[in-house]
Structure formats: structure tokens, C-alpha cells
Design goal:
The complex is a heterodimer. By secondary structure, chain A is mainly alpha-helical. Chain A has 9 helices and no strands. In chain A, α3 runs parallel beside α6 and α4 runs parallel beside α8. Chain B is an alpha/beta fold. Classes of the chains: A mainly alpha, B alpha/beta.
Amino acid sequence: MADNIPVKSFLNEVGNISQFTGRFFSQWYRPRYEISEFIRQCYFIGYKSLPLIGLTGFIMGLVLTMQLRPTMVDYGVESQIPAIVGIAIIREIGPVLTALIFAGKIGSSIGAELGSMKVTEQIDAMEVSGTNPFKYLVVSRVLAATLMLPILTILSDAVSLYGSYLGVNIRGQTSSSLFWIQVIESIDFYDVLPAFIKTYFFGFAVGIIGCYKGYNSSKGTEGVGRSANSAVVVSSIIIFILDLLAVQITDLLGYN
Amino acid sequence: MITLEQKRTKKTQLSTVIDVLSIKNLYKSFGENKVLVDFNFTLHKGENVVVLGKSGSGKSVLIKCIIGLLNPDEGEITVLNEHVLELNTTEMDKIRAKIGFLFQSNALYDSMTVRENLEFPLRRHWIKVTQEEVNELVKQALDDVGLGYTVDMMPIELSGGMRKRVALARTMILKPEIILYDEPTTGLDPITGKEIINLMIKIKKKYNTSSLIISHDMNCVKMAADRIVILLEGKCYAEGNYETLKNNKDPKVMQFFE
């Protein structure tokens, strides 16, 4: 009997998240449109995440190249480093790592912000002020997260590849034009498209889980911390599950 | 020379009591915990009523039912002649514009300045208001609570008492007909608490508002209440003015005044 309790609470949580997501889809297109809040959130979620995403992307490209180099040299395919790193970053590492960093920064901040607003009655105050707090707080944040993550991923991929270019040139010499030609020739449309599409789903997952955890926060300040923490954990797990599904779907469609 | 007819009319006017809020047979429970059980209450125009009760007796639940933040299980709530439980969201928002709500925790938006906090309900309820009007109303509301200089400050920069006064200014900015105060002096030192009570009395006199005050602070009860309602076991257990209830010999009433 006791074994059933975690399963029950897990299923309850899944049910509640589904209900919350359903509420989002039933409300996002209806007026009143919170455009100024959406733009504000795009600024915070997108623009303010740029330095972190850029830095981690750069280090990722550089380190990946430096780690890969000895093995490539052993096999005598050193010249293929730009192509391999390019494919790895564009198809998988760029979107997933950016999404995980994004979940850590944005998921936790949304969870903590809404959680704190919930326990200090700010959400109730909004409702009393003639505002639909779900639309104002949740819809604007989820839409901003969904739209900003793909843009951040593109930028992260570009910075990553630049890091890789520097990595290639630490021990060897490759011209900038040769590096970029090799990268571009190695990737095609079907490498880019599925990777780009899945970032929308990653962004949506981070937004909706962060909002769900914050919006349903309880038990005072302890609950706020727990909301922020579980927002990151749950959205990270969902990112991996979505990634697995995305790979299966692209495989089924013959894009792999 | 006042005629007999004029005297009669004046007497009738004085004795006419307008109910701005009425609650009938209200029930609210959370699972097995019955919080409100057949609660009945009326608030008259221009009156300050304090609902007195122990912690967890359902005082905050009561005002959250009135403003529509909680749905009661049964009963009828009439605010300014509208049955609030039958209203849709748009109609409820119109009623909410006429009710001010001072939250126990102040509920100031942390990410907004004092000005933005005050502008928020204005922009939401009065969509066609111009920037000049907004500026004037914000200034007036802050001047009423003596905090005009805080307009560009963030809530985190204010002391507890200042935050309460800003929250009161935000509550007042729409010139509500009814104000619901949820434990207005909780967490404040006695002097600041007294200042808040005096502000509440000043606002009532200036704008002729009706107020429902939730409190267990006897200083607040004594100073602000025209009438006191004791909420016990989910019901309106006793009511009357301060002196009447203070001299009541019922032990359940006496415990509040000891």
C-alpha cells in the first residue's frame, strides 16, 4: 500500500501539470492581451540570459574541440574536427545544453518569483485589481520562454562554433573561411530544422513548469525555495524526455 | 422656520440605513474543517465594522469570499445591490473596482515602484484614464497617507509601516465605496499601528467609505469600530459596540476583552 503513495503523488502531479497546461491553451489567445508584460518578459528571459548562454556556449565549443582533437589526430582525421563539432553542436549539444542552462536560470527564477508572489498575496492583489493573474503572469512568461529559447539556441550555437574555431587554432592552423566552409558543408537542412523545432518545446516546458511550480507554491518561504528547486529538476527531466522523443520522431521520419 | 413636513423628511432621512454589504447563510468549509457556518452579517453605509475572532476562526476566509477570491459552499453575498456569487468575471471586476482590499501582507508588487504599484489598479479598472489624471490620483493618494516622497522608491526600500501606508494608498486610489481591511495592524509596533488606525478613520471621514475590518488587535477594535461582530465557531456569535460587548458577561465574549 505504502509503495503506491509515490506513484499516486506522481500521477497527481502529472494530472495537475496537464490541467495547468490545458488552462494555458484555453487562455493564451483570448483578450485581454498582456503585450507590455510579454515584451518585458522577453527582455528578462531572452536578453538578460544572453551573457550566461553565450559564455557557456563558447566554453562548450572550445572544450569539445580540445577534448576531441587527440583522438582525431590518432585516427588521422584532424581535418574533420569542424564538421564533427558542427554536427554535434547544431543537432544535439547546442539545443540541449542551452535548454538546461535556460532551465537553471529561467525555470528557477520564474518558480521563485511566482512562488514569492503567491505566498505574499500579490497574485490575489492582482485579481482584486481586475487582472487575470494567470494571463498576466503565466501566459506572458510561457510565451516569452517559448519564443526566446530558440533565439538563444541559435546564438549559443554560433558562439559555440566560434569557440570551436579558436580551439582548432590552439594547436593547429585553420583559416576562418576553411573552418566555416567545413561546418556549413557538413550540416544540412534536416540537421537544423528538427533541432530548431525542439527548442520551442524545450522553452515551453521550462516556462510552463516554472510557472506551475511557482503558481502552486505554498508553505511560506520554504515553499518558495522548493518551487524554484523543483522547477529546475522537473523541467530538466522533461527536456531530456522531449529530446528522446524528438530523436525518435526524426528517426521515424527518416531525417537522421 | 422648519415645517412639520420638513422635520418628518429629515427624520426619515436620518433613520434610513443603506446596506452596502449583506451576507446571508454563508457556509464555507475546507474538507472536514467547517470554517463558516450559517454566517449572517450586514454592513451599513458609512459604518466601520470590526470582525473580531481568534486566529484561524475564518475571518480572512470571510473577506476573501466577499471579494471573490474564495467561493463559498452556500449562501448569498450582496455587495452594492449585486449578488456577487452570480456575477461573471467582467461583472465581478466592476464590483471589485468599488471595493478596496488591504491585504494582511500588504501585497505590494516587489518588481514595481510605488508609483507603478498605485497605477496598476487604475490602469486595470479605469482603462480610459489619461497619464495626467493618473499622476494626479497617485499624488493625491500618496499625500493622503503622507508618503508623497516615496513615489519612485521600490517597496523593499520602505519600512513595514510605510509599506502598509502605501498599500492603503493603493487600496484608496480607486475611491472605493467599501474597504476590506485584513488585519491592518498585524506585525506593526503599537505606535505605527495607531497611525494606521488613525489613517483608516481619516479616510472614512474624508471619503465616507464603509469598512469591514478583520482584526484581533483590541486597540484597533476600540479606536476604529462603530460596531463589533464576534466571529466564533463560524457564526456571528455576538455583536454590538465596544462598551456593550465589554460589559457582556458571556465568558466566550469576555475572553476577547480581558
